[in-house]
Amino acid sequence: MKILEPVIGDFQDDVSSILNTNLNTPVRGALKFGNLLALIREHKGFLQKTLAKEAGMNVSVICEIENNRREVSLKSLKKIAKVLDIPYQVLLLYTLDPTKMSEDKQDAFSKIVKLINNDFL
What we know:
Radius of gyration: 15 Å
Strand content: under 5%
Number of strands: 0
Helix content: 55-70%
Order of helices and strands: HHHHHHH
Largest sheet: none
């Protein structure tokens, strides 16, 4: 893993930076998927309408997901992630709440996050 360190960034810090910049408050614990999606979509410069069109979805579905009024299916998640150029697993990773994990799992979670390339955002 040390060989990869020069090319691997800290994606969690990048996401936290986006979230803190947009929310002006520190983020602790899990994020609701819709909130995360809206922040990343905006950071990537997509309008809901554009994201929906490129993902082959209805804009009202994207809006409902972002407002946490609708669960996202795995099929839709994969489409959205592809358009945003982020692996869908990365999107799901940030909906986990490390504060509800045991200490050893928090450590593992932290290590996994540090291995994710910061080029996704």
